[in-house]
## 1
Amino acid sequence: MSSTIINSPIAGCMRWGAWGSKFNTKAYQEIISACIDNGITAFDHADIYGDCTTEADFGAAFKSFASKRSDIQIISKCGIQMLGPNRPQHTVKSYNTSKEHIISSAERSLKNLNTDYLDLLLIHRPNPLMHPDEIAEAISQLKTAGKIKQFGVSNFLPYQVTLIEKSIAVEYNQLEVSIVYTDPLFNGQLDQCIEKNIIPMAWSPLGGNIFSNLTDAKNKRVFDMASSMTSKYNTTVSAIFLAWLYIHPSGIVPVLGTSQIERIIEAKDAKQVKLSKEDWFKLLEASRGKEVA
Ligand SMILES: NC(=O)c1ccc[n+]([C@@H]2O[C@H](COP(=O)([O-])OP(=O)(O)OC[C@H]3O[C@@H](n4cnc5c(N)ncnc54)[C@H](OP(=O)(O)O)[C@@H]3O)[C@@H](O)[C@H]2O)c1
């Protein structure tokens, strides 16, 4: 495995600001503090979260954690150009993986987050116009300047990772995978992570909120199956969904989406739930609505 800086589940910050809980500075400080106290030291951002406001909101709270900076890992992403009042110069939603954009986006994230370096910078989405040499030049320059420590991609298919690796090693691939979105188990993304020692991170590890939509047939099937296992494992349904990811041999690291401190703590404990392989396949079957071939 690549030398990881991430040793615990990651706290995803996408829903903490304008796109969700609208935390004020005090609420950010409380949740950051609770995460750190419970050994969850990595925080996942992107330049665009909260219509490009969440990094700065988090950064205002993060100032008071400056003395703990070396024990904390900050992840950000770049490459999506959104439309909206905070980016009036954009006329179409698009991707930008030019050297100039990657460097300026990372530098803006540093300023907003109130930090001198990112532990990890990810290219948010594969860009049909990307060239690996240009990405590699930007990343090398940022690394040499001490502005980022590690580099990865997000939502990249295996052939897109291979393209980038023509010019620079990819250390992480943050992708959507969960009990209700199982494509990466079958499309080569997780196989490639094992093959190339790339660390996979799972975004929407609880399907973006399975619990809120149990009228959906797939959500209901997996919820019912996990519910039937909670007493055997002495745990909760959401811990079973996370344990289902943890068992994968690629070493999936979930990026948690909750804004609730007690749910973050519960997610950390899910690593202790050791699902049997039989139960893992029962959950897979419930998700796909059919047995494996
Ligand atoms: N790279 C990418 O392209 C990409 C895309 C999307 C997201 N992400 C990252 O992934 C992170 C997680 O994504 P996500 O927010 O979709 O993750 P998720 O954990 O699948 O979903 C989070 C939602 O589920 C709810 N939830 C969690 N546990 C629950 C429980 N036990 N019972 C009921 N509801 C529960 C949360 O509500 P409460 O807050 O009330 O708990 C929240 O609304 C984001 O913050 C972001 O950092 C990355």
## 2
Amino acid sequence: MGGDDVKLRLGGITDMSTIDWYGNVSMVVFWAGCNLRCPYCHNSTLIPLDSGTVVGLDLLDERLHQSMDPVPSLDAVVFTGGEPILQTDAVIEAAKLVKSYGLKLMLDTNGTVFKDVERILRTGLVDRVALDVKAPLNPDDFRNISKVLDVYGSYVASIMGTLKLCKELGIPIEARTTVAPGLSDDEEFIRQIARDIKGLCEVYYLQQFDNQGDVLSPELKTKDPPKKEDLIRLARAAIEEGLDNVHIKTRFDGLEMINKW
Ligand code: SF4
């Protein structure tokens, strides 16, 4: 597919963000459509495969041009969603465009379709991966969070494959778990994730569930986010399991590194 005729299903663009890739000023591109149904999803309007708007790559080109010329105001671009890897061909062409502006690229993905993740990562166009590790890497726990049937465990195998591929390719990976009440706030649940990802990621983020926005589950939307003290306790449990770079992310205090004591 050539760059000129590339179409993408776009959920929106945030021209400038300082919180989506810490330490960088990023443009955030929301790819529409997702293959999962996480109850805590707060971008749930982007889940349907026919959500968003079909646009040409020239729209992204225009927005990048506005942000980079005459005075560059960005360091990086983040592809998020929805789930970008469902549009692999367009992601690769858009990644080439990002690189033509001399910008770094982070791919935020649920990692569930390994052949597509691999196609994208082996282009060498992605500088960092943000990977959702929603649950311990076994099909039962994963299904309980993603609300899709993980046939033959292929989704969890794909997430593990993504972790290992990033290590092989030397792409830094940040693994993330959203801590939601009654779903993913159990200490043993987090300990098992930590054991699964140990040695395979640069940093682990425990993100506080946020009941603002378009939360998919009406029941969950009525629940309070977990307390910061609980996230700290879970982070310490992950550290005890051998992770040495664990952060929590809360709505009011942002990102904080957690120490063992
Ligand atoms: S949280 Fe992410 S992976 Fe889950 S449904 Fe929403 S966009 Fe998809």
